[in-house]
């Protein structure tokens, strides 16, 4: 890995987190950022439960979406979601500690493709997310 590129990646994500009120509301903690990659974590809270007594699917989706955003934007090229999908593989419960790891599969000039795995504290995969981003010509920093 290139230390200079990774330093930029961290600076971009730090900037994003300062302005991302939703990710902060989720309680996201950034664990690792390198160019085209991110790993983040959050603890599930009681107000995230749906009417079935399990955590709303939007919580796992939102965590994965934030990991996706951090990975696809951290080259300092403003990128927005073009297409996303998620598969829920296990239920999530209050108190679970979720980790989302975003890995870049393709880095193109105008698009990028990412695979995000969301797992719980038992290292069980609870969701699989795929995201395609569109790259603009704008910088974040």
| N to C succession of SSEs | HHEEHEEEE
User: What is the C-alpha radius of gyration, as a whole number of Å?
Assistant: 15 Å
* Domain count: 1
How much β-strand is present in the residues? 35-45%
User: How would you name the CATH homologous superfamily?
Assistant: Hotdog Thioesterase
Task: Give the beta-strand count.
Answer: 6
Give a short account of the largest sheet: 6 strands, antiparallel
**What low-confidence regions span 5 or more consecutive residues with pLDDT below 50?**
none
The shape, in one word, is globular
How would you describe the overall organization of this protein?
The chain has 141 residues and is an alpha+beta fold. The chain has a single domain (3-135), classed as Thiol Ester Dehydrase, Chain A. It contains three helices and six strands; from the N terminus they run ααββαββββ. It has helices at 3-19, 21-26, 57-73; strands at 29-34, 37-43, 79-88, 97-107, 111-119, 125-135. A six-stranded antiparallel sheet has the order 1-2-4-5-6-3. A hairpin with a 3-residue loop joins strand 4 and strand 5. The two termini are 21 Å apart. 33% of the residues are buried. The mean pLDDT is 96.
Notable characteristics:
Thiol Ester Dehydrase, Chain A; 6-stranded antiparallel β-sheet; alpha+beta; single chain; 38% strand
